[in-house]
Design brief:
Blueprint: H1 3-13, E1 21-25, H2 31-39, E2 44-47, H3 50-63, E3 68-71, H4 80-86, E4 89-93, H5 96-109, E5 114-118, H6 135-145, E6 150-154, H7 163-176, E7 181-183, H8 190-193, E8 200-203, H9 205-208
Parallel strand pairs: 1-2, 1-8, 2-3, 3-4, 4-5, 5-6, 6-7
Bound molecules: pyridoxal-5'-phosphate (PLP).
Pyridoxal-5'-phosphate (PLP) is lined by residues 25, 27, 48, 72-73, 156, 186-188, 202-206.
Length: 212
């Protein structure tokens, strides 16, 4: 069997709950590496650059109606229009300017996406995400003022021993907002994330190998 399918199956065998979706994060990998998963019927794929996603997935999507594409990387406002065309989910909504534009593009195009609000749970300068103390206001703004379909929270916690506390915070905060979906858990920490009810795991290197 193809090694990539084997690795995905191994991850699946660790997950007992069928509400949990695995997003195969295919950024930087060429289509010929990814294609066996598509042919095997895998549905969710993640990319972090609009241009790369368009080049790689444009044709494949036309022939595979079931595919769902997730934008998991930082989204510049000037790429928002293209992103709404290409993706089904955006995990990185974290500022009003971006949210305003996404809302406008949706009204013009008639297409509705599913959104996660990214939270900078570790307060790390180099990472994106809304600060936890601004989350309530930002969430209300996105949902009430802009009518964005926010389905949950997303975070990339610091890769250290605080990670479990951050998963717990995200799980509790998500529930307190009444949100049903939760995007957390990557190759290094998805087993720990599983303790706090994620619905979308974002897993790259454990499936495709390390990125050079
Ligand atoms: C690259 C990336 C992932 C996947 O990371 P791995 O460690 O390779 O599993 C998950 N989430 C985001 C936001 C990423 O940019």
């Amino acid at each position: 069997m193809n090694i990539i399918i084997e690795r995905l199956n191994k991850i699946k065998s660790n997950i007992k709950n069928d509400k949990i979706n695995i997003i195969a994060v295919s950024k930087t990998f060429p289509l010929e590496t990814i294609r066996p998963l598509v042919d095997a019927g895998h549905i969710h794929f993640g990319e972090n650059k609009v241009q790369e996603a368009e080049t790689k997935w444009g044709n494949l999507r036309k022939n595979n109606n079931n595919l769902k594409l997730h934008m998991i990387g930082k989204l510049q406002s000037n790429k928002a229009k293209k992103a709404v065309e290409i993706f089904d989910y955006i995990h990185s909504v974290d500022n009003k300017k971006l949210a305003d534009i996404l809302s406008k593009v949706e009204s013009n195009s008639g297409k509705k996406l599913k959104y996660f609000i990214q939270v900078n749970v570790g307060g790390e300068k180099q990472k994106s995400g809304i600060q936890p103390n601004e989350l309530d206001d930002f969430y209300t703004y996105c949902v009430k003022n802009l009518n964005l379909n926010v389905i949950g929270l997303m975070a990339i916690p610091p890769n250290d021993k605080t990670v479990e506390n951050h998963f717990k915070y995200l799980y509790e905060t998500n529930a307190s907002l009444g949100l049903k979906d939760l995007s957390m858990g990557m190759s290094a920490d998805y087993l720990l994330a599983l303790k706090y009810n994620p619905t979308y795991l974002r897993i790259g290197s454990l499936i495709f190998g390390s990125r050079s």
